[in-house]
């Protein structure tokens, strides 16, 4: 009897051990599957939270819909009976989408949609059954989506390459000029933008040339004109001549390369690092803010039209002097016109307040404070224009 109980206990212990191992293996598999699912979800969402994903989706949907809003708004503004209005808007949107496809894809989309419609209403085409019609239409739409996504990915890759090229065109570090402290920052509204900035010495230890410009428009067309502007400025600055003559030649180059009425606003200046003498020219640009050491303000204005409008325009310069501890803030309209979710603009008053509060710190710290306050004001609202700001301080 004792022997029998001992064998029964041994068998029970063996089964319990197997059960524990099974549960342990199952637990390990569950933990591994859970970890993999979490890792996959993190890769899928790039580590973003649901709220961040939803905010990004809404912003991208709003940006993408800009292609169709103009067509739809033009149709919806016409006076029609109320029951016809939704059908008119839907038809306008549908044809707007079709026009943006190539002729081959346009026809392919129409055929797949007709086939899907026939399957819904129960009309069989040739030997196709209702289920087969719907499956063919679904596969056709999926194939069209894959082709469009392929084009989109290829385009994004090309734009990323263009972005890198654009980064090469503008300085990443401020020039090392004794007695002058410079900092700058730029943020394109799209992947690439039309804002431009530069600071370099003219030949033979000449004056420091400072330039901030804003090409009308955004994205690829503005970026191409910006690249032309940068190349022309560098080439023309290597030749001796006054700032007025340089801008006159630059204007003719911009006129020759501008298309569809595009123009360029710009602020250009020559600073003598030793004396602080500043010759400047503001061509339709936001007048820079000059804060004196005693706290007073000046705006560097000059009555000149933007570049690229009048071929033979005579550009006039102004003259001032940067004293030690003076602060010069040059910016594009993307700074003051930045909007938050309530569509309120950042405005010049806020910018002036930040400049007024700036002390004797380095230009990089002043610039960082401006950009941080701008970010806090805008919040999660989408950026609608390129933002560029340059801070110059004479030590």
Give structural notes.
- With 395 residues, the protein is α+β, with helices and mostly antiparallel strands.
- It is 53% helix and 15% strand.
- The protein is built from 11 helices and 10 strands.
- The protein has helices at 2-45, 50-64, 66-76, 85-99, 103-121, 130-169, 219-237, 243-257, 333-336, 347-357, 363-378; strands at residues 180-187, 195-201, 208-215, 264-271, 277-283, 289-291, 297-299, 318-321, 327-331, 387-394.
- Strands 1-10-9-6-7 form a 5-stranded antiparallel β-sheet. A 5-stranded antiparallel β-sheet has the order 2-3-4-5-8, with helices on one face.
- A hairpin with a 6-residue loop joins strand 2 (195-201) and strand 3 (208-215).
- The termini are far apart.
Radius of gyration: 32 Å
Q: Assembly state here?
A: single chain
Mean pLDDT over the full residue set: 81
Q: Residue share in helices?
A: 40-55%
Key features?
395 residues, alpha+beta, five-stranded antiparallel beta sheet, 53% helix
Question: Quick gist of this model?
Answer:
It contains eleven helices and ten strands.
List the helices and strands and how they pair.
Layout lengths: L1 H44 L4 H15 L1 H11 L8 H15 L3 H19 L8 H40 L10 E8 L7 E7 L6 E8 L3 H19 L5 H15 L6 E8 L5 E7 L5 E3 L5 E3 L18 E4 L5 E5 L1 H4 L10 H11 L5 H16 L8 E8 L1
Antiparallel strand pairs: 1-10, 2-3, 3-4, 4-5, 5-8, 6-7, 6-9, 9-10
Helix pairs in contact: 3-4, 5-6, 7-8
């Amino acid at each position: 009897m004792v022997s029998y109980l001992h064998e029964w206990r041994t068998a029970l212990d063996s089964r319990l051990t197997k059960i524990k191992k099974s549960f342990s293996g199952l637990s390990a598999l569950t933990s591994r599957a859970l970890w993999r699912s979490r890792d996959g979800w993190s890769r899928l969402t790039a580590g973003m939270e649901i709220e961040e994903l939803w905010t990004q989706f809404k912003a991208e949907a709003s940006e993408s819909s800009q292609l169709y809003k103009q067509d739809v708004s033009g149709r919806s503004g016409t006076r029609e009976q109320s029951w016809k209005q939704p059908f008119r808007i839907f038809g306008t949107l549908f044809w707007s989408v079709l026009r943006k496809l190539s002729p081959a894809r346009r026809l392919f989309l129409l055929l797949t949609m007709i086939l899907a419609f026939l399957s819904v209403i129960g009309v069989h085409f040739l030997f196709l059954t209702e289920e087969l019609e719907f499956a063919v239409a679904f596969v056709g739409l999926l194939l069209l989506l894959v082709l469009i996504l392929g084009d989109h990915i290829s385009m994004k890759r090309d734009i990323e390459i263009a972005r890198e090229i654009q980064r090469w065109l503008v300085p990443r570090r401020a020039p090392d000029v004794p007695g002058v402290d410079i900092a700058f920052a730029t943020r394109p509204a799209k992947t690439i933008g039309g804002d431009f900035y530069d600071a370099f010495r003219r030949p033979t230890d000449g004056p420091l040339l400072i330039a901030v410009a804003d090409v009308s428009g955004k994205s690829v067309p503005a970026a191409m004109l910006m690249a032309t502007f940068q190349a022309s400025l560098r080439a023309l600055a290597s030749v001796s001549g006054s700032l007025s003559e340089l801008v006159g030649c630059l204007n003719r180059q911009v006129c020759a390369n501008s298309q569809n009425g595009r123009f360029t606003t710009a602020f250009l200046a020559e600073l003598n690092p030793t004396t602080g003498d500043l010759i400047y020219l503001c061509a339709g640009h936001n007048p820079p803010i000059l804060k004196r050491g005693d706290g007073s303000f000046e705006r560097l204005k000059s009555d000149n039209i933007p570049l690229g409008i009048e071929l033979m325009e005579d550009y006039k310069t102004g003259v001032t002097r940067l004293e030690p501890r003076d602060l010069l803030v040059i910016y594009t309209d993307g700074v003051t016109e930045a909007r938050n979710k309530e569509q309120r603009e950042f405005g010049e008053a806020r910018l002036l307040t930040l400049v007024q509060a700036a002390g004797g710190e380095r230009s990089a710290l002043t610039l960082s404070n401006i950009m941080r306050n701008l970010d806090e004001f805008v919040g999660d609202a989408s950026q609608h224009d390129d933002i560029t700001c340059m801070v110059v301080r004479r030590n």
